[in-house]
């Protein structure tokens, strides 16, 4: 807000979750990761290198894991089969089961799962999410992209924000907890971000604007995506129009694909 007073056009955006998605590769030094799987897998097979990386994780790791402990780092998905044994467990829990330190567990999982281990890191406080949401300069965004539970995207384990951000705001933070009003939530989702990036004919229902419209039931809309099962559509959305064409009708996707690239004006 102080920057605004000095004439700087500044905003922020958020998604309504207390956790973020990560990869187990993030625990390795970047210079090792960038050399590829064959390099770091061979590197970690050597005892002296393994010890070096364990020390690196213990002493040099920056971020929420350090302050909150391994109980908040949850395994969301892995590449190999029979992963139900570890999915949903925290690094703390699995390290106890395997009788090793969490840092050593990371090395084991890197090798076992060929580097493909998706993590959920609980690192934020709910009260902070609400405080930020109430700020008039904060917009709402999913921090995601277009995905699908079918086809080549169906096997990817996304953060639930991809499917749940906007219904979660409307259901949990507007209807249930009354953190902000419905009108303010919609402004933060539509007109505010459209204006920020220069889409002057988007984000509002007015003459001459493109008809990008979501028809939802304010009494039932809610997110259904979870960190373990993120590819779940929300409840309470009846119809969706993109560029005036119906893409969701009676809660079901149609075959219409009217979307297009947008240019700043």
Automatic annotation (TrEMBL):
Residues 156-248 form the Amidohydrolase domain. SUPFAM superfamilies: Composite domain of metallo-dependent hydrolases, Metallo-dependent hydrolases. GO terms for molecular function: hydrolase activity, acting on carbon-nitrogen (but not peptide) bonds. This is Amidohydrolase 3 domain-containing protein.
